[in-house]
## 1
Amino acid sequence: MVYSISAMRSPSVPSVCNWCRSTSNGIRNTNISLLLKKEPFYRKVFARMSSPDSDSSSLNVATSNKVLVPGGQGDGSLSLTDQLENPETGLEDHLVLHDVNDPTIEHEKKLEDEEKFVEPPSRCHEIDNEQDSASSTFAGEAASAPIDGTESIEEDEARTRTIPPPGTGQRIYEIDPLLNNYREHLDYRYGQYKRLRDTIDKYEGGLEVFSRGYEKFGFTRSATGITYREWAPGAKSAALIGDFNNWNPNADIMTQNEFGIWEIFLPNNADGSPPIPHGSRVKIRMDTPSGIKDSIPAWIKFSVQAPGEIPYNGIYYDPPEEEKYVFKHPRPKKPKSIRIYESHVGMSSTEPKINTYANFRDDVLPRIKRLGYNAVQIMAIQEHSYYASFGYHVTNFFAPSSRCGTPDDLKSLIDRAHELGLLVLMDIVHSHASNNVLDGLNMFDGTDSHYFHSGSRGYHWMWDSRLFNYGSWEVLRFLLSNARWWLEEYRFDGFRFDGVTSMMYTHHGLQVAFTGNYSEYFGFTTDVDAVIYLMLVNDVIHGLFPEAVSIGEDVSGMPTFCIPVEDGGVGFDYRLHMAIADKWIELLKKRDEDWKVGDIVYTLTNRRWLEKCIAYAESHDQALVGDKTIAFWLMDKDMYEFMALDRPATPLIDRGIALHKMIRLITMGLGGEGYLNFMGNEFGHPEWIDFPRGDQHLHGGKVIPGNNFSFDKCRRRFDLGDADYLRYHGMQEFDQAMQHLEETHGVSL
């Protein structure tokens, strides 16, 4: 996560894709907006639109008197601890289960109360189960033989997916006896985790079922029609609108149950065709405490930005079976030493444009394989309306970014990576969300505390984004299901969780210097709700997909972060060793004679026993405008004049290339059990990253100049690394040799 770029806001950048016009037929749909056929993505069109913003009378929907009120500070909602440990709290009248961090709880509530709690009622089990749930597997997957000991697609799909029960949570004290001084906090944390697991088991059928929320919420297709469900307890009335019903808010009115879940079933047309054609725009219109609003469904699987519009449109994405991508290749086995190529599809072209999933599949994946990396980590997958957020201001959590293509295009990319033996990791954002109201989750049901904490606790002042309430039952369902969705539907091989430090502490790691004192990790500033969520999501990932990889971006050094959950840890496989990059930047600002090898080695090897780390000399953070890559720190403007082999190098170039190589080699050798590099930095990419943006007008009349929406600095000049007449080529060859050395001899400690 970049702690500065996300706070910048500028007007949304129109897609650089070209759009043309077309038509299609449908019985309920007289004005289909988006046709998603097999043509290239830029030919997918908007046509004959009727306005989704047309006026309508207020909706009159009979709602239950037992509507659950979303929680937040000062709203009377119960904390998760109160609801689990105090039967008299009247749990069924409350939806949000939050704030396990009340300072009085940790001292007053003891583990001997563990049997005295009332569990929350099930949501999904109360929903009408007569409708068929959407299949969680791919229809008609092609047969493929396992290679190199990998599990075939058929074996993977046939395997029974179960999540093991909680363990004792006590092994952390054997691993690190110093943790005994904080046993009260850690045992409390694990006790709350176990109670929540028990509650989910009793009322939701277990974590495996609970994490399949996408089979109930959003749009689900059955043999007889389409069911749409949405959790919006703050809404007074709701209706499904879109191209399929000419945006008529009185045509398809939804009903609400006692848990604040709105629902409607649309039967198939008379000829058996679906009531909502594939590619139609859809929204939910709600009468909320903030007024009438049209929102993209929270569980939408695809959304696009129409030409000339700023807010995105939700798209009902359900192509015919013959057009759906069929996976052909099994997932690779998890490597002993993971070497990650961090990438961004949109900026992966050598040309100044937004690249596509297809081009990345055909051009960039073979490059990654040739360079010797065994995993590709892809940023900005979840849909984000603000391109310059680097994908960190997510608006639609279940939808892949439409800038680069369709969901099936992304599946094709992942399948090709698996064919090459590459793991595909997703940079997933569960630490915060875009504060967009029209096309995001913010104020979704008209309340400030729907998916997020209310007030200042629910707002990240540096990132200008909303912060999830990890104590809310439905927020847990949403986020756990989201993680599973990407693993199951798209066959990602794991995640790099962004901004985990912000999640684990109520101060979000801002203006705080972590010194390693254990009281900084286990006290009143720890957001125990968030830590428990991380334990749950790692249960889902590792229980259902044992070969999956989970990496956490944590700068604090939280003890137990990479210890299995059953042993009392948070459950990640790896922590990003963020201190290394900071150390190199610190040294690069000093004179050569002030570099101390002992200090370098200490930083590289300073990690917790049995907790694995991903080492990196630099990532995308250092490549952003306003910062400098290592190559730029070392060689500065000489990179533009003296990198050709047909002219003499300067002492700055010779020193810079040598140190660029050695910094990477010693980082890989000593820094951790895995290694990461951001695309292009392997050959010392000479340009920074500057997303297309316009002028930003701040309060008080100050203007931050933009770049006239230029894509010139939002690309990767791979041609420089491939040009054998440039010194960049030698730097690329060294990095390639380094990756193959690790593959062959395992040089990392």
Note: The longest strand covers residues 281-288.
## 2
Amino acid sequence: MDNLSDALEKLKIASTDSATDSVESCLDCLLKALANNKFMRSPCVEAGLIPPLVQLLNSTDQEVLLQTGRALGNICYDSHSLQAQLISMGVIPTLVRLLGIHSHNTALTEMCLIAFGNLAELESSKEQFASTNIAEELVHLFQKQMEHEKKEMIFEVLAPLAENDVIKLQLVEAGLVECLLEVVAQTVDGEREEDIAQLKTASDLMVLLLLGDESMQKLFEGGKGSVFQRVLSWVPSHNHQLQLAGALAIANFARNDGNCIHMVDTGIVQKLLELLDRHVEEGNVTVQHAALSALRNLAIPVVNKSKMLSAGVADVVLKFLQSEMPPVQFKLLGTLRMLIDTQAEAADHLGTNGKLVERLVEWCEAKDHAGVMGESNRLLSALIRHSKSKEVVRTVIQGGGVKHLVTMATSEHMIMQNEALVALGLIAALDLVAAEKDLVGAGLVSVLHKLLSDERSAPEIKYNSMILICAVMGSEPLHKEVQSLAFINIVSKLRAHENKTVSHQASLTEQRLTAQS
């Protein structure tokens, strides 16, 4: 059939008259035409073939359904705009219903799965999928499959769908987790390529389900859930993929204080430390990264910090100080920063570790890795702020860290600016003489002038900048710079600032500047 308008007419009739005998031959011809010439797709769309084809999905004839699905798939293949058109025409609920009715028909089932795989990539499809019983249908279908290829087809649909939090919970409630655990148990010792592939897909999907707050909490079950316990058993496994998934799962479970406190109290930290110890020398980078992520999250609640420090977390983490992998460096820094927050003794101990400070200063210059550079600066500042120790300040000065803290004060992130200013204030208060040369060389006074002159600077920034000005007045060269830049004019204006803390500090700073002018 060469004439598209003829095909359109026949399909329009067929879509409203299920008794039309020519519908199958018409679809057959259309599929052949599409198979032979990919440029036929646009004429099909322009001729208006999509609406009657969608209508034919209501047919009771399985062969018609199969051919219709294939024709739509062929026409809309690789076109997000046409796929979006199908979604807006309500094709998703129709296909889910067909999957439920014809799950015994292998060809129809595969056609539905291919369609789902394509449509699920579009964000606009997720809401429609969530309003159907797709989770139940896919889990039911998965439970029946024995062949690797068929399971892989279902996995390819599940992965994009599971990115949606509503569908995550639906999949958990439909029993997908039990299916995934079974796949893991069956393939963990397998050496065939398909076993290794299925193990990775199943464990990755498990981790993905745990990214949803509701689905994660449902599986945690107060730390007593059987699924939670099974996933924990993956960490000491000899299989790298399971170690990775287990560590990532713990990191995902550790997303609220209650879960973190329970996990630390039940000895999970020790499992993670043992895992890291196995990966120090030429270890698996993804496992290192995942285990450090889990430790970082677990260290967030205040009550966990001292327990984790006593367990030796800092010492194990420091073993990765020589890592050249930015993702590992980033998590290592974040874990140490979380551990020392409010922990003066630990901050003092780490802050006087010359090798650590030397490495931090080196990473503060890692311009190719903004995350590592930012975390290094923040940890350098945190060591000073939480220890308030002259020895730590000396170690940072000797290691060349002062200039990086001055640069950090110019960050676009207010929290980093503030952390830098507080650390610099402590340096000036505890050992101004030793830091003087570096503060002058880094242009501290000029930076403070800009921060106070900038109307966009937050009240905390203005306050801490004035505190720092007062702190450096004891240094002759810094004092001269303050006088040369006429700070008194800026500060006097800040006496009228709407923030009372800022205005009060402005009065005190003005008095100090006037007295020492």
Note: The mean pLDDT is 90.
## 3
Amino acid sequence: MLVIPDCTRNDAGRYNLILTNAAGEKTAHVNVRVLDSPGPPINLKPKHIDKESITLQWELPLIDGGSKITNYIIEKRESTRKAYSTIISVCPNSTVRIPDLAEGSEYYFRVSAENEYGIGESVETTDPIRASQAPTPPESVYATDVTKTSVSLAWTKPKHDGGSRVTGYVLEAQKKGGDQWSHVTTVKTMDFIVKNLNENEQYIFRVMAVNHSGRSGPCDSKPVTIKETITMPEFDLRGICQKIVIARGGKDIENTMKLTIKMTDLTTTLINKDSLRRDGGEFVLTATNVGGFAKHIFNVKVLDRPGPPGGPLVVSDITSDNCILEWAPPADDGGAEIDHYVIEKRESSRLAWTNSASGLTDTQFKVNKLLKGNEYIFRVMAVNKYGVGEPLESAPTIANNPWVPADPPKDPEVTIITKDSMILMWKAPEYDGGTPITNYNIERKDKIGLRWVKCNKKKVKDLQFKVTGLLVTHEYEFRILAENAAGLSLPSNSSPFYKATDTLYEPGPPGNPRVVDTNKSSITIAWNKPNYDGGSEITGYIVETCIPGEEEWTIVTPPGGLMGTSFTLMNLEEDKEYMIQVSAVNSEGIGEEATIPVVLDKPGPPKGPIKVEAVTTDSVLFSWTPPEYDGGATINSYLVEKRDTSTQTWLVVSPNHARTTIKASRLKNGSEYQFRVTAQNRYGKGPSLTSGSVVAEYPFKLPGPPGTPSYTLLLKNPGG
């Protein structure tokens, strides 16, 4: 018996057995299969490559693990990353096409085989594979110089390199009228001198661009006659990308430590070392030969980091822990669009700067987390694609609140008294301390007591308050304190003493309380007179609100009550639910409350029409107006959809769009579309607003032909 513990697929194979004694030997063999996951596939390589896909092929693993290979798993990673991601988990064949790749990007791939015992080892491509295709042909081929035995050719680079760098050019020649093309050379440059040609013969030349995916189609020259010619000079400017050069005009350029001119038989190169923005200007190129004179003027542009933002750096709205910075865009953007701004701060007593914000696109920023009383210096830098520009610094700024506590409120007095409550009114402070009043604290003191007791549990912003929980026949005085960001004011003068009296004939509740209108910040309610007036004339109504779950009601009607039977509650907070109650008042006091339910709903449709702002061949920019009715809750987003008018299917452009303007992209050139927008709040989706039909095309067309030519004067001898 032979025992192999912990065997793996590598222990599979043929085992030879040999028995030997004095009379001789006998042999036998055993074929051993180890049941395991398979080994790695072999010969993984690309079969076909184009600009957005790569087709891979491979062969079966040498070791199948004793079971049939049933599937392959394919993974990929970009050459700039280390992590693989699974792109195909079910592949029964040994070839697969991988789509949706980024043109020009390089990828590694690996493949693992799978059998009934699991997924085996993977095989990885040894080198990255670039998603590319053969380039387009060169744009043009032309002769720059001709002698009696040679021609100097030049050509322009392809309009598209196929996603892979052009590695060279193939040049071929053919005598005019012939049918055979002859290989001349393969070069990496975009020019070549063809020699040993026959004088007075006509030739046609063609050039093909080559990259890793193959050879482009040819670009043919016009027929060239081989003979000595004298012409005016011409400039070959193909080596200057978009005519962007670095030089300053106004005088002849000579070789210096900064400027260098290099010349070969075919090219002249001007090199400006360590270029600065001030090196921009006008560059004039001239050439002269016996045939004449040529001149070319370049617009000079130097690309660099941006200059400092426009100053001054204004620091405003300063408090003890934050402030607001404002600045202007740089006068010099470095020749590239400003991408964002970086904000930094430091304490005046320190040298180290700390980052406050990065990636900021606005020219305003609120700096938080300052320490009260500390002095700070701020700076802002603009950033473009070439780097971070020079900083703009602020003057030293001390983090401190500019305000003080408010003056005391004035003239507290009681307007309505019942057996256990009183309605208290007062006047606002003459000076709010430089910041808004955020709360009033109401305090009471029993005539037989010694201390002041706070009456309100939550913030009070109105100038009246209903004090409850009073003892019948007890007398009370009241005082008010105003609160702002700096703290509490001194207390107001105390009110006179008021006695809580027992009321026997208060009116009944108002009838049929109801909501008649709502929007995002107000609710209008109405009611009928009470069936029972308590034996005394109704002198007014009091409306109170309360947040569900809280016990304290707030009076929202004017001081002294309301005479009508309807009221609009203003300045309500969005997305909050309110309980509302209304009470009638007569000479004996405040009657029983009637509660009004507030119903919140889905929003109405956006306000039309949908306005088309801009149209191209593959996109439409359009806008709309928010709904007039928001259902009593904030419009948190819009569902935007599109439909090709040749179908009935609506497709989602954006499921949760926050703004009222959107650009719908990926449209088909020439197709007709409709768009619709649906507002959404916390209670659901409202009705939709649909646009008219829009054709995805540019809003302009080719001009018509000119009119018929005619002459106005005929000369016998124009040169005479």
Note: The longest strand covers residues 106-115.
## 4
Amino acid sequence: MTLEEKVQQIGDTAKGVPRIGLPRYEWWSEALHGVSNVGQQGSKASFFDDVVPGATSFPMVILTAASFNETLWKTIGQVVSTEARAMHNVGHAGLSFWSPNINVVRDPRWGRALETPGEDPFVVGRYAANYVRGLQDVEGTENVTDLNSRPLKVAACCKHYAAYDVDNWLGVVRESFDARVREQDMIETFVKPFEMCVKEGDVTSVMCSYNRINGIPACADRRLLKDTIRGEWDLHGYIVSDCDSIEVMRDRHKWLNDDAEDAVSQALKAGLDLDCGSFYSDYGANAVTQGKVREADIDEALRNLYFVLMRLGFFDGSPKFDNLSKDHICSQDHINLAIQAAREGIVLLKNDNQTLPLDSQKIKTIAVVGPHANATDAMIGNYAGVPCRFTAPIDGFQQYGKVTYATGCQGVVCKNDTMIYPAVRAALNADASVIVAGLDLSIEAESLDREDLLLPGYQTELINQVATRSKGPVILVIMSAGGVDITFAKNHPNISAILWAGYPGEEGGHGIADVVFGAYNPGGRLPLTWHKNEYVDMLPMTSMPLRPIDSLGYPGRTYKFFNGSTVYPFGYGLSYTTFNYSLAATKRSLDIKLNKYQHCRQINYTDAAFQPSCAGVLIDDLESCDNQNVEFSVEVKNTGERDGSETILIYWSPPSEIRDAQIKELVAFNKVFVQAGQSAKVKFNLNACKSLRYVDYKGYSLLASGRHTIAVGDNILSFPLSINYEVSE
């Protein structure tokens, strides 16, 4: 190819070279929770029409993450990639999908929480690895040794790298925001899920974000891109910009006062292979002729891109998937999985006097009211395509009784109280009332962060009036991504039960009704903390540190660093049955011998704490990491009368004497189904260097000596673990 031909292939619309038979390719497609029709305007790779009218739309990621079911996460990825391949076979989809979004939800106001797996970096990373494996893996080739030639079902992309979680808050927008981030937080929180996505998921692409990080645009930071993603993590694929990020570098960040050719050269040298936009195509050739970047850098980008297309079979075909057709899109099995995903993610937050599940033999009439009672589009959130069908809440409840419907509000914003009384009147005569309230994309979305954590408009008034006047039990269902301060409902004596349903996908109404009437026993857990509204008055969204800033009065962020009161904590969720735990730990100490060339490191302790002679050692310096494991088993007994699933959450707390250490950190989890009266034993094996890693304020990853704690759930059970160093002379 000539230079001019080359630069036309490194934008999201690769124009091809007819002269040598190189076809055109559109890189941008989305598959966040199903095949989407979001893409480049005028040349979308994935679209719907009479030939392919829709694809299965699963719950938004925040709800799927609440299932804490890694098998489900991977299975959804497999179904989405099957439908994507089937659409590709009839010319309706590309093969590269810029999903999933794996940014950690640092602040409860963030508008894109619905797209992500929540606030814990480990959960986010495990979701990423499983969903990506589901999208990409071709059965039988998962363990191919040459990963640059490993076949792909479709190509996934983990985004947005890194420290991206401010969209549009009080005039601060992502395109000009400079995230001032400590190295400690980068390693612990912002970068960790991406490392897991590349190393454990073998993702084929990482997307850099719009924002600057400590003054440098993410898409022009060689240390973040070439040195880390491709070098340290060994990416087998390409790095792509968020759309128009290079233009944003020039026009919004005004970084180094670069002109277009400067910005292009900076990005190419940093390791950015693909420009979602036109800057590479428009200015790449000039950047080379002006001597600002080498043509060899463009050649390297092309190699990274076309290796992926070859692994996808774009040029030679993929016979293994040739049989996939329209019959494999929106199949009943796929729709059933969407129902199951909604059921598994729903979280039971309150259930006074075991009001739920409702008995369909006794509850014959149901008032289903509220702005989401007849929700359809709201249930599939954003980055959604056209669903196979919708089952709204009122449709789901009609399977169990006679439904009386009243919206109670004119939309989610609920600007006045004029429609409340019809909802109250419906509740006056019903055996049970279900209020379906919450948020939607007009409140929390990409480019739209929240300013408070309250229900919009008159929704609170609607809920209170219906609860006060209802004839039968009242069940409140909240649709949202971020937490909502519903303390009033939590404490309301007439609201017997509360469910959180996220944005539950095309079959959301089916899933909600099945949980309310006991066809499914809820087992979901909150993937992020539900803060009280006063939390957002304590600190600006733009303050990036996760640890408290005592000098400014800023509290900590996420469950790892916030020790105040909440509406509902991370990991919270009830069941219709009860579980008892027992713990068997086989090892309660690790004694590690150091040779005379291994150095002990100082750790910042609290003032009165005893300081051991060897406070900690760099994990990279420990030769015996593979053998430093903590094995134990947890037995879960279902002591209730219903079968159910329980999520076992394993937390680690570092020695309490370490200053500014996390309160606790999730290091393992397992979802287990247990029949009534039966028990299940789950074994855990934690590698100390991976699971008990402490990152100090200098950015060093250490294994600290002293008394660590391993806890099951919210301190249901725990045991101490001592780490001791013996230094050889």
Note: The longest strand covers residues 717-727.
